[in-house]
TrEMBL record:
Stated name of the protein: Histidine kinase
Transmembrane segments annotated in the record for this chain: 7-28, 287-308
Pfam families the UniProt entry points to: HAMP (PF00672), HATPase_c (PF02518), His_kinase (PF06580)
Gene3D superfamilies linked: 1.10.287.130, Histidine kinase-like ATPase, C-terminal domain, PAS domain
Source organism of the structure: Paenibacillus ehimensis
Residue ranges of every copy of the HAMP domain listed in the record: 309-361
Topology in the lipid bilayer: Multi-pass membrane protein
Entry superkingdom: Bacteria
Amino acid sequence: MTGKPTIFTKVLVLIALLLTPVLFLYIYTNQVSVDVVREEMESSSLNRLSFFLQQFDTTVEQLAMFPVILNSDPYLREFVDRRSDKPYDKLKEQTRLMQKISLQSVSAAWTNDLSVYLPKDQLVISSNIFKSYDPADIDKFAPLKTWTYDGTVRGDARTPGARFTRQIVDPLGATDPAAIQAMIQVSFPVANISAMLDQVKTGGKGDPFLYRNGFSPIGSATMSEGSVQAIVSMLDGQSLQESGHFVAMVAGRQVAVYYVKSRQLDWYLVDYVPVDSILAPIRKTNLLFYATLGLLLGMSFLAAYLLYRNVQKPIGKLLNGVRLLKKGDLSARIRYRPNNEFDFLIDRFNEMAEQIQDLVQRVYAEKIRLHEATLKQLQAQINPHFLYNSLFFIINTAMLEDTRSVVAMAQNLAEYYRYTTRMENRTAALDEEMKLVANYLTIHNLRLGRLRCELDVPESMRELPIPRLLLQPIVENAIVHGIENKPGEGVIRISGSVSEGLCRIVVDDNGLGMTDEAIAGMEHQLALPQEAASGFGMWNVHQRLRYVFGEGAGLKLSHSPLGGLRVTLTWGRDSEHGAAIDRG
């Protein structure tokens, strides 16, 4: 028996064997934790800087738009282009323009000076009443196209110190003072930036400042000059990206330096955070871990067994059930009873799975009904606007005893309404839509007597299924808004083509047409939701195409070679949406 290991010895050896990998694991995880904290600190600091810089750039961008807005102001254009020679009128116009500039200036969040230089009159009109005209300003700032740091001391500045300026000239691109009619300039003092940095610094551990190589840094009122200058000297020797970070030693302390580039000023927002103060709590937890490790290891064996029996196995069953639900098997149920608290979770899981299965089925059915109701609503919104005119035509023609015209109008009107009031089918062949358009054009031609229709749709397209009442609103728009208001013969050309899996129907007319601005405005209206749209004609067709054929389908407006408007209907020939709509 001598020399045989006792049970106690075996337990000690086992504990020692367990302790060694646990220690190594803790050392490794501790290092991973430190790395994660560093990464999170880097991410948090960069995100904070980016968020602040986004607000900063937004304010600067707002100021940059002031000269552009003011340049298109009618008061300024009238003052520059058609200024009165009468002293009283001239003074009145100048006063009105100064009020306009002042109101524009005070609308910004930052203190700024908004000025209009008139070189030919040796005159400057500014929101800063102390500002005087200086020809050197034209020579200095006119060639500059972006924000410029101006560190010169100006006696007419409301806020002392350096400033950022930006300007535009009229005409654009002119640099010769003799050719410049006006230079509109906006400037703001760096005191605005310092005040904003003061707010960012409040409650934080950093000391943010703006930096650019060759210029003095711009910081808060409580900026640490020594630390900032040490960091600036390091930044001067580096090739900076759009954003980044590095670790440096400043005043005997290790600090993490972060920077993000401003897209407006082309300066960098820089901040630095002491690394030791962030990692100190992690080091304290090391001591606590070593103190509790022995106790935890002594209880690990019993805990592992109980954990497996009472927790791990039930959790495995639950995870397996969740995986089945994730794969789409909504009939998955757990048939395991651990006889502990997990019985309640398993019962609730089974009930939840049953409810989810029932809910998914109901939601799917409701979605189908909603989709069908939406399509029917859109289809029902297309109503002929010419019914009264057609009936009055029949009455007047009957009074003139023109039986042939009465019969023709009645027959075409009956065919038209027989087709448009059929709501049982949501789709029809393209050939049927072409026949409806022919009826519609015949009705209008009986009234107007000057319409000509040209059809060039290939036979291969005529049997393609499309939503019903798709072409008639386009033709109606061409007649009502284009041809009726233009004297002479009206021509409507309808052509079709299929290429690269896309079907296209092009409707051209020789009506009045539309300007580029009007076309852009109408295309904007097509994308609006129903409650915001101003009409239901072409908007309805566009929305129905998108409902049936999905993204990429819809209307496109452009100028027609006939002189009027071109409307192009586009949809995918093999669209899954088109097949799905027929199934409900």
